[in-house]
């Protein structure tokens, strides 16, 4: 009988053990697949599923406000189910055919109202929403200008887009943004004439970096380069929904820029601890998406239980029940940084590039929000991000390594996500555990030599590869 998976380190180790020899007598179909996987395993780059051990400290899930952990969302969801006892569980059709309901439309009106948008469109997930937006909205002759760190699902959407030009600009860099817009203005007569548009794609909080875009400056710059007003903004608020702005309404609401941003996207498995995607836009954009997006036209509509969970989450946000959690997260991030940077090892580890938090080097003007996502950068182009992950995981902290191609080469990191449900002692223990690892890495550095001594947790993980039982 198949078995369920275990903890991250055990499953990681099992996943790196080459399997080619065991499929020598299988069909070429399986041998070819295993050969490709073995190429990843040899480089220790094979990903695998794992489960979370009970009692572990979660610094990885997106349940930032603790709505899932605390049971608050479940309680509100059960009430929502009780209020709607006759609802069908599944959607049983596409949105355009049988899958539309009054419940879904009412919820869209409520959500749009909460975010100060004209309308909303709920999708099965945020990835589908991004796919739908970028397939349907940029029209032939339009251009897309995107921050180089924009999410993978926006890239997937852009691949199917009809836009004539797609150009990235340097992350959060207004100068680079202006240069990119100016190049488009110079090379695209229909856009400079104001007949075609530029769609700018940004995130509210960048998922791997935890920083926010200088949105006001970007909007002002766009107006300067294109006074005809044919630049429109798209903001992926996956990570800023629930965590920034009044009652968690997101970055755009925090800055009062609702009128300046044509499309926003909210992904519900994040702070809402639910499931689904929400497109905030006007009726023109919504109608275009319904007519042009194949992933909406040919896929089932959101199911009732998904919508009920979203409504439960919004009920909590609307009534201000999540605001305290928003503030608590800010306190925890500040506490963590204070503990980390006041530890005696910090300066030495920082100088030796063993630990860095570039986000905290920015001044308040460049980074006005202390967000729940905190990337700890490790020594570039090494396996330190893996070593730190092993060290923390084996100590009971759930964190994951982030590496190329998810982030650029040389910026490997461990991403921490802070939750309102953490207590101060957990945060202090996490900072102390990271510092103990840094001390160990410094002592390995000092030994010099051939540099092959591994830190203790990594030795343990590598031994697990040798002893992994693949059956
Ligand atoms: C910034 C961002 N956008 C979009 C998505 C996709 O959302 P979903 O998980 O709802 O498909 C994610 C998911 O991780 C994300 O981080």
TrEMBL record:
Organism domain of life: Eukaryota
Classification lineage: Eukaryota, Fungi, Dikarya, Ascomycota, Pezizomycotina
Entry cofactors: pyridoxal 5'-phosphate
One MF term in the entry's GO annotations: transferase activity
Cited SUPFAM superfamilies: PLP-dependent transferases
The keyword Transferase is assigned to this record: yes
Keywords annotated in UniProt: Pyridoxal phosphate, Transferase
Pfam families given in the database record: Aminotran_1_2
Family, per entry: Belongs to the class-II pyridoxal-phosphate-dependent aminotransferase family. BioF subfamily.
Domain Aminotransferase class I/classII large, residue spans: 83-432
Keyword Transferase on entry: yes
Any single GO BP term: biotin biosynthetic process
Protein name per its UniProtKB record: Aminotransferase class I/classII large domain-containing protein
Gene3D superfamilies tied to this protein: Aspartate Aminotransferase, domain 1, Type I PLP-dependent aspartate aminotransferase-like (Major domain)
Organism: Acrodontium crateriforme
């Amino acid at each position: 009988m198949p078995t369920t998976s275990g903890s991250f380190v055990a499953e990681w180790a099992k996943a790196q053990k080459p399997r080619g020899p065991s499929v020598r007598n299988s069909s070429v179909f399986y041998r070819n697949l295993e050969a490709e996987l073995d190429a990843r395993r040899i480089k220790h780059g094979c990903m695998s599923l794992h489960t979370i051990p009970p009692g572990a400290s979660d610094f990885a899930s997106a349940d930032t406000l603790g709505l899932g952990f605390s049971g608050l969302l479940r309680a509100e969801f059960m009430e929502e189910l009780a209020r709607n006892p006759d609802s069908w569980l599944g959607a049983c059709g596409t949105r355009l055919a049988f899958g539309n309901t009054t419940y879904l439309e009412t919820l869209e009106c409520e959500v749009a109202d909460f975010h100060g948008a004209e309308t909303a469109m709920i999708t099965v997930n945020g990835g589908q929403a991004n796919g739908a937006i970028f397939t349907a909205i940029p029209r032939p002759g339009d251009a897309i200008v995107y921050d180089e760190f924009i999410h993978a699902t926006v890239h997937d959407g852009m691949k199917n887009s009809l836009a004539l030009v797609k150009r990235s600009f340097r992350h959060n860099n207004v100068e680079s943004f202006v240069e990119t817009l100016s190049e488009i203005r110079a090379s695209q007569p229909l856009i400079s004439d104001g007949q075609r548009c530029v769609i700018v794609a940004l995130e509210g909080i960048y998922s791997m970096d935890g920083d926010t875009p200088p949105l006001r400056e970007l909007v002002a710059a766009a107006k300067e380069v294109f006074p005809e007003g044919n630049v429109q903004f798209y903001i992926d608020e996956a990570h800023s929904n629930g965590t920034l702005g009044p009652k968690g309404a997101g970055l755009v609401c925090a800055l009062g820029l609702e009128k300046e941003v044509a499309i926003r996207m909210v992904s519900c498995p994040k702070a809402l601890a639910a499931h689904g995607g929400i497109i905030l836009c006007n009726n023109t954009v919504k109608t275009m998406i319904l007519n042009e997006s194949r992933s909406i036209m040919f896929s089932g509509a959101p199911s009732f239980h998904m919508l009920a969970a979203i409504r439960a989450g919004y009920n909590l946000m609307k009534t201000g029940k999540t605001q305290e959690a928003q503030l608590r997260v800010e306190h925890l991030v500040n506490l963590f940084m204070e503990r980390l940077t006041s530890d005696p090892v910090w300066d030495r580890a920082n100088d030796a590039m063993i630990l860095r938090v570039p986000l905290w080097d920015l001044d308040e003007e460049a980074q006005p929000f202390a967000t729940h996502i905190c990337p700890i950068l490790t020594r570039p182009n090494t396996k330190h991000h893996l070593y730190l992950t092993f060290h923390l995981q084996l100590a009971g902290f759930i964190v994951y390594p982030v590496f190329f191609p998810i982030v650029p080469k040389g910026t490997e990191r461990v991403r921490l996500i802070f939750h309102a449900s953490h207590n101060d002692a957990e945060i202090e223990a996490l900072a102390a555990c990271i510092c103990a690892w840094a001390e160990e890495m410094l002592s390995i550095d000092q030994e010099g030599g051939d540099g092959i001594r591994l830190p203790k947790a990594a030795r343990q993980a590598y031994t697990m590869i040798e002893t992994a039982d693949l059956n």
